[in-house]
Amino acid sequence: KNEVEQSPQNLTAQEGEFITINCSYSVGISALHWLQQHPGGGIVSLFMLSSGKKKHGRLIATINIQEKHSSLHITASHPRDSAVYICAVRVLAGAGSYQLTFGKGTKLSVIP
Amino acid sequence: NAGVTQTPKFQVLKTGQSMTLQCAQDMNHNSMYWYRQDPGMGLRLIYYSASEGTTDKGEVPNGYNVSRLNKREFSLRLESAAPSQTSVYFCASSEAASGSVWNSYNEQFFGPGTRLTVL
Known about the structure:
The structure holds 2 protein chains of 2 kinds. Chain A is mainly beta. Chain A is about 0% helix and about 65% strand. In chain A, β7 and β8 (about 70-75) form a beta hairpin. The radius of gyration of chain A is 14 Å and the shape is globular. Chain B is mainly β. Chain B contains no helices and 11 strands. Chain B has strands spanning about 5, 10-15, 20-25, 30-35, 45-50, 55, 65-70, 75-80, 85-95, 110, 115-119. In chain B, a hairpin with a 5-residue loop joins β7 (about 65-70) and β8. Chain B is globular. The model of chain B is unreliable at about 95-105 (pLDDT under 50). Chains A and B meet through β4, β5, β9 and β10 of A and β5 and β10 of B.
């Protein structure tokens, strides 16, 4: 069974700090997703990556396939970044589709 | 485009009652998914539909049924609700991987969620 572990579970940061959230998984995957769940409950996809690094604004996601590890970095954090960040790994489920296995999420609170 | 829509947003049921959660997407996606989210746990897949006309069980299918009504709509039915089904339910959709699946990186788009309480 594929396990997805995120750390830390909870993170409180001062505005402007550099933040790192980690994700480790146990089996081979085809891709890894980082998602953001807003306090209101909505879920949006931030990144989907299978190798290397991706950057979008102040967010950077990296993945090391050999080490089965990914990190999400937030530079110059802001209170509006406060959310739950979820790591999910994609494994092939057959019939041309795939399934996602999710981590439990990291709750980030950025204090002004 | 509305993306992925779900109805209702909130629902309270009594044990043994039945209900259907509706999901629709307007992105012409082939694959659709139902997840549940419980406190302290990651999202878990209940059922998915890789394409119109097919449905498959996910990690936690017991107590649920699904119908892929057409390409746009994918419903989740609770025939006899139980308190253990109290949860937040999310529908999602994505383009189906085709061809060389290892090179098809398809993003999942989520609906706003349905908060269900079973008393």
